[in-house]
Amino acid sequence: MINQVKEIPIEGITYKNLKIEKKPLSREYVPPPPELVPRANRAVCIDPGHTCMPLGAMWATLGVHRAIPFVQGAQGCTTYVRYTFSRIFREPATIANASFHEDAAVFGGRKNLVRGVRNLVCRYQPELIAIVTTCSSEVIGDDIHSFLDEALDLMEEELGPEVREAVKFVVVNTPSFAGSHVEGYNRASREFLKALARKSGETREHVCLIPGMMTPGDIRELKHMMELMGVSHRVLFDISETLDCPLVGMPDRIPYYPPGGTPVEAFVRAGDAQAIFALSPDAGSAGAQWLDRRYKVPAYVMTMPIGVRNTDHFLRNVAEATDRPIPDRLRWERGIFLDAMADTLHYTMMKKVALCGDPDFVAAATWFVCELGMVPTYILVGTKSRRAEEDIRQACEEYGHQPVVMNGGDQFEWEYALKNDIPDVILGHSRCVNIAREIQVPLVRFGFPVYDRVGYQREPIVGYRGGERFLARIVNAILDHQYPDDRTHQ
Amino acid sequence: MDAIHLVHAPVGCGYYTWGTRRHLGDGYNWARPGVLENEANHRRHCYTTAMSEEDIIFGGTEKLKQALLEAFRINPGARGAIIYNTCSTALIGDDIEQVAREVSKEVGKPVFACASPGFCGVSQSKGHHEFNFQFYKWLLKYREEHPEVCLKEEEKTPYDVNIIGEYNIDWDEVVIVPLFEKLGLRILNVFTGNARLENLFKLPDASLSIVHCQRSATYIAELIKQGFKVPYLRVSLFGIEQTAKALRDVAAWFGEDKMRRRAEEIIEEEITAIKPAVEWYRERLSGKKVAIYVGAPRVWHWPKVMEELGMEVVACMTTFGHREDYEKIIHRVKPGTLIIDNPNEFEIEEMIETCKPDLFLTGLKEKYLVRKFGVPTLNSHSYEKGPYAGFRGFVNFARDIYQAVAAPVWQLARQDF
């Protein structure tokens, strides 16, 4: 044998030689009773398109510098959210918990909060604690504000009056039965600003951005665009340097805190901002609109800047709010994006695409696929949203498409539709993997949550550059799947 | 595996338990005519009542009943159902047991109601405990009402055994079950990895229970022992020495020379097969320091395994260990080993500073934290590339440990730049 490398020791049992035989549970395929397919006709929810409210509030909190969410509930409410964040970002997420047991269920969570907050302050010295409530504390009826007052009084006695200044508190009420994770983020955006924002009267020339549940890569792309515009800006709930951090070998000191995050000060100054942009209408508009009402900071609530039209719209509004021109550099990026669209139109035009995800992502992506000449067929909006539905209708009217929109439906309903009318490509998240494999259609991952492939949290889909990357992903997925190699070599 | 798992709760509780831990199975439903679904029945779909505010105020039992009936119609392959309540539905007092009885009668399939509110007990260990007791109670009743589900007298053999506390993480069963089958045993049940309801009804009909996870499932083995005089043996099925001991113990329990000889043959055959690989890894892993933080039993299953790889255990932590688990840990580690009960992140960080492990065996949530400290990790809950149990799985385990420790990235991270 020539040119042979040194032998690598045997592997125990690899996936390949496991050879598990799949055993069908029933003799043949039985389609579900047609009347049980639409979500509205069912009591049972199968494969929900959204998760619980506290997750959104915790997501927002983890975008704040040295902030820790304190979950007033049972341990599972924290464990599973940490688990979800770790899966998506492959980063640690520090979240504290009140650890409800039977006594809390009977007597309420006062003791848990008072002691828990004290421990957290002493051991972690956070700059901000967001008390996030859960189903159980809301059903019991915990009076969080009075508990917090008591905790503060006790801490002041023990640790001195500085503690009131050193740690800021925000309370976010998030009973899961009243909304989804998107609503949780939305509420957090309002409560943070309500608790912290002030107007000093000095005019400061900066704008605030509430990104919603964008990835670290998306947020970095937003900052890049703002820098090119020359606009002084603050991203509120900035997870780009808290949930995406370098490996350093050994942090300087413990406890480990990620270096980044929006400083508390930025929330305080939000009252003086020139404008506030909510770039995910369903996750963040509550905060922006509150700031507008309270401190007359003009609020711009707009579709997420995915695709040409939405990015144009965003930048025009930034230009209008700050009275600055759109620089040539951004026009260049836009031109590159358009160039990429022109180069690939034969692969995207008239392709049927099904979409699934959170309302903000899906509404914006619908605009984008329309711009690519694709035909949206079935659109599942994971959390019911009137605004997203209107946005989708508007896009489809403009481009002459008539998709089926399942607003607030579950994945079962959507899945069944796809099985009967197979699209060319699916834009969805990691929960769509099974359906994509079963109908043998490529899945382009985006939105919340993507956890089964690496790198998605770092790669932007917003802005012109992000759009170009997103387009490349869509086209490459189609090429991999539908075109033999000799037809892609031009 | 072949049941519908319906979580009676607001949406999150069901959502997070959907397709998370890799407890795999081989029973599949049809996706389309001729095409099986991509994941086994119990992992493919998430069924929940997704309680709304209105449901919480007015009660959710009717919704639960309707939901369960619909789920049975949508999933005709399911052999039964297990319904779980959670914090909110327990607080509002929904009677899930009543629903289970009614639906079971209506569809003619078994339905088990498991009361599992999150605030109950100190940790998930209470959930294991509760499931064991409630399930056993229900099992007895169901067997009484439906005697046909029991193993018929003429079908019984003296070699029928249950493997209890084995959850088929990443197909551990593929390595474990054949070992015992080769001994001449018939495995009636694996509680509850890749388990079928029809088999679980036969749990009390075995002659012996072999208990692997002794935290989550000794309860039911003990109940079966008390109720049906089926004794149980505790075993560890990780690493060479412990797996060999398990086989010898089981053979000794049956007391037949033939089986004893068979056990020795299996052990020799398996060790010969894996020895070169294990030695190759041992050579490269010797002297490394390791910290272990898993649920509970693996923390005492594994110190011996680490020793077999020449590694030194410097710290042990459990999420939900009881006194009994800590006694076992103390018994199996060297004096001076740091032991922490249910550490928080801060304590884990302190452990890393003081013990300086070369490897941390832990789960998903902690692994990213300790990596920031430059410490390699291994997902010890769901495994990286399992199975890890038994003889053959041990090579996978050793390989993944070696890959974690030997990856060039840690060296690069330590370089000054």
Query: What's the shape of chain B?
Result: globular
Separation of the first and last Cα atoms of chain B: 52 Å
The share of residues in extended strands of chain B comes to: 15-25%
Q: Return residue spans of chain A where pLDDT drops below 50 for at least 5 consecutive residues.
A: none
Secondary structure tally, helices of chain A? 18
Largest sheet of chain A: 5 strands, parallel
Q: What does it look like?
A:
The complex is a heterodimer of chains A (490) and B (417). With 490 residues, chain A is of the alpha/beta class. Chain A has 18 helices and 15 strands. Chain A has helices spanning 53-61, 76-89, 102-107, 110-124, 135-140, 144-159, 162-166, 181-196, 216-229, 264-268, 285-295, 308-322, 328-348, 359-371, 386-399, 411-420, 433-438, 463-482, and strands spanning 23-24, 45-46, 67-72, 96-97, 128-133, 168-172, 207-210, 233-235, 275-278, 299-301, 352-357, 375-381, 404-407, 425-428, 443-445. Chain A has a 5-stranded parallel beta sheet, with helices on both faces. In chain A, strands 4-3-5-6 form a 4-stranded parallel beta sheet, sandwiched between helices. The longest helix of chain A is centred in the C-terminal third of the chain and has 21 residues, at 328-348. The radius of gyration of chain A is 24 Å and the shape is globular. With 417 residues, chain B is of the alpha/beta class. Chain B folds into 3 domains: 3-120, Rossmann fold (3-Layer(aba) Sandwich), CATH 3.40.50; 153-266, 3-Layer(aba) Sandwich (Rossmann fold); 275-414, 3-Layer(aba) Sandwich (Rossmann fold), CATH 3.40.50.1980. In chain B, strands 14-13-12-15-16 form a 5-stranded parallel beta sheet, with helices on both faces. Chain B has a 4-stranded parallel beta sheet with strand order 5-1-6-7. In chain B, strands 9-8-10-11 form a 4-stranded parallel beta sheet, with helices on both faces. In chain B, helix 7 packs parallel to helix 10 (218-228). Strand 2 (45-46) of chain A pairs antiparallel with strand 5 (47-48) of chain B.
